Amino acid sequence: MAEINKAPRGTCDVLPQDSAKWQYVEDKMIETAKIFGFSEIRVPVFEHTEVFTKSVGDTTDVVQKEMYTFLDKGDRSITLRPELTAGVVRSVIEHGLLSGPMPLKVCYIGGCYRYEKPQAGRLREFHQFGVECFGAKSPAADAEVILLADHLLKNLGLKSYSLHINSIGCPECRKNYHAALKEYFRSQSDRLCGTCLDRLERNPMRILDCKSPVCSEIAAGAPVVLDYLCDECREHFEGVKSHLTAAGIDFSVDPHIVRGLDYYTKTVFEFVSTSLGAQSTVCGGGRYDGLIEQMHGAPTPALGFGMGIERLLMIMEAENAAMPESKKPDIYLAPMGEAAALKCTALCKALRDEGFIALTDITGRGLKAQMKYADKIGARFTMVLGDDELTANKGKIKCMESGEQTEISLDEIREKLYELAYYDGITADIDSLIK
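The structure assignment produced for this chain is given below.
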């Protein structure tokens, strides 16, 4: 029987004390995408199952083993999205966005769902940031998307990561490569797992991505795709490397990268970190020039990447990257009596209108309990209001760090709180909130 007070296996709650880190990272992601000309898009959490089987590929682990698929009440096959690219492509086709100015650049943040064995940095519900660029076929576009990911990782304070790139060619030059792979893997077929035996005839490149230790060992000796590139794909890959070099981005060519989804063509890449011990991919992507046509849109070159937020946060923590804590209340107003409570409500409203985090008692606590609560939540200032303070229209603001108290007119609480917070260096961004 399911435990109603325990999250499902492979899911994770983001608690209030951690939400500031998520908001910080997500804000950095959207800000970085914007300076590269990308605008946010939001697509549904679930799609018709065919959106993924026709794009991700029915020989991939994602489709064969990991998708959350069910029939809805109309007997339609629905799947929780295992990744976001396919849904974004469906959306831009449906809404005619590809008929507008090109290139079309979009970014997104959203949850994804895959039924796989939970482990550190790999959950059944996980969150991705990603970008997609449509309508640009030049190597400069590949480099720009890679530069965006690199810019973001540096901006978040990451240092121990490296860029690995490869080209897996186009459907034409991959024919010869597939033939070479089939010949090689057939010679090892008695050692392949059942899933890879099925892949051998349908899509032998998927064997290169198998998680089985035995299959991985066999795949290490397989023919290398770079040896089978056509002239166009080879020229494109050289162009990508030239643009990255011109931008001063270090990279290594890794002929074993194929990525886990079938829609990729030509350039594929991964940003890999060693901060969690073993190598861990923090970002992966590439070009998928045939996907839009495959999903019944006009032939359009496209590329993008996805970045797992949970794993990114783990790497940031391992590297002690700077992350903000939750903002503390600027002031806690402690009322004594009903008249004071009404005044505190009014003062909080006025302070919040100016952007201050202002709190007051809403539980009927006594003064001692209120002050203990203000200390626990880290309020920077407190003020006690009773009958005497109401009569005099004055109160004393107390700095909780220094213990200093300053008497002020209640009519000037906004200006005085700003002055105290500003000069004490406590609320650095309040001056931008004062009108």
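Interim note for the steering committee: The radius of gyration is 28 Å. The chain is about 35% helix and 20% strand.
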